[in-house]
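Pinned message: reference record for Glucosidase II subunit alpha
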Amino acid sequence: MHRFDVNTNFISISLGNNLFIIEFSPFTIVIFSNDVLQVILDGFNLEDSLDQAFAFAVSFPQALQLYGIHEHADSLALQTTQVGGTDPYRLRNLDVSGYELNSPMALYGAVPVLYGHGPNGTAGIFLHNAAEQWVEITNDENPQAYIMVESGLLDLFILLGPTPTEVVRQYVSLTGTAHLPQLWALGYHQSRWNYDSQDDVKDVVANFTTYNFPLDVIWLDIEYTDGKKYFTWDSNMFSDPVEMQQNISATNKRLVTIIDPHIKVETGYSVYDGALEKDLFVKNADGSNFEGDCWPGLSSYMDFLNPEARDYYSSFYSYDNFPSTTPVLAASKKHFLVMLYIMGEWYIATSITSTAYYT
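Predicted structure (C-alpha cells):
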C-alpha cells in the first residue's frame, strides 16, 4: 500500500510498513519502519550543483555501533573520529604497501556502504558515488556519520533491514552477489611477490610435499610475464610453462596467475593492438586514449563500461588465447577498473578483484 501526503513544508510517503517524511527546509528525511524510527538523513549542507563537493549527515537511532565503509586496516566496529578520536575514514582507491594498522587511511578498495546495528534493529545506507569521500563517525547515544563527498550525485539507497542478514541482502541486491567457488578454491593458496622462475615454483611445490603441508593452489605474480604484458610468458625464466604446469599437477595442485587491468602501450603486443584497433580504451576529455604509468611503464586501460571491451578482454581467459596454458592453470586473479573523469580528475569508480576461470 502506497500513500502520499503533501504539505507546504514536507511530504509524507507510506510504503508498506515504512514511513518516509521529507522536510524541505532544512532538507531532512526521517524514516520509520514498523513505527520505529530507523534512519535520519540531514542534508543541511547540500547544494544544488554537480560541480562542487557536498556533505550530509546520517544517524541510526536504534543503533549502538556503526560498521562498514570498507576497506580499512581497522576493527570491524568503526571508531569514533570526532574530537578525541581518529582522523575521518577516507574512501579512495590507493595501492598502499606500507599501510598502518588500526587506521582510517584509504586502502585498495572503497565501498561506501554504512550499517548501524543495535538490539532493536539494523539499518544501512549505500552511497552510489565514485568520488573521494571522508566519513566522520560518532558512536554515542545516537550513532551517526557525517559524509563529505568530493563531487557527483547524492545517489543514496536506504537499507531498512531489519536484521544484519537482511541489510546485507538488500545491499547485494543492488551490487550483485559472488559466484559460488569451486571446491579447490576453498583450500590453501600460496601467493607471494614473487617467484622469479619456474624452477622456484617447482621447488616451492616440492617442499610443500616434502614437509607434508597441505597445498591446493600456487599463485604467480606478474613477473612470469614477458615485460608485464599479460597473457604472455617470460621466455627466459619461464621457458617451459607447460612442463611447469605438469609438475604442479603431478601432486594434484593448481595454478593461478595474476593479471592486472593496465595494458602495456606497445605496438606488436596483441592485447594492446586489438584494443587499440577496436577503440576499447578509456578516454581523456579530448577523446584521446588515457595513458598512465604503472608496472609495465606507459599503460592504457580497458573501458569496462563498454560491453565490447568486456567481451574482448574476457576472450583472453582461454587456453587457446593464452599460449602455453593447460587446465592446471585453473584461474587468474582478475582486476577490473572502472574509471570516471570528473572535474578534470580521474576517479576509480570500482576496483574489483575477481576470479576468472579458463575455458
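Pinned by admin. Summary line: The CA atoms of residues 183 and 346 lie 39 Å apart.
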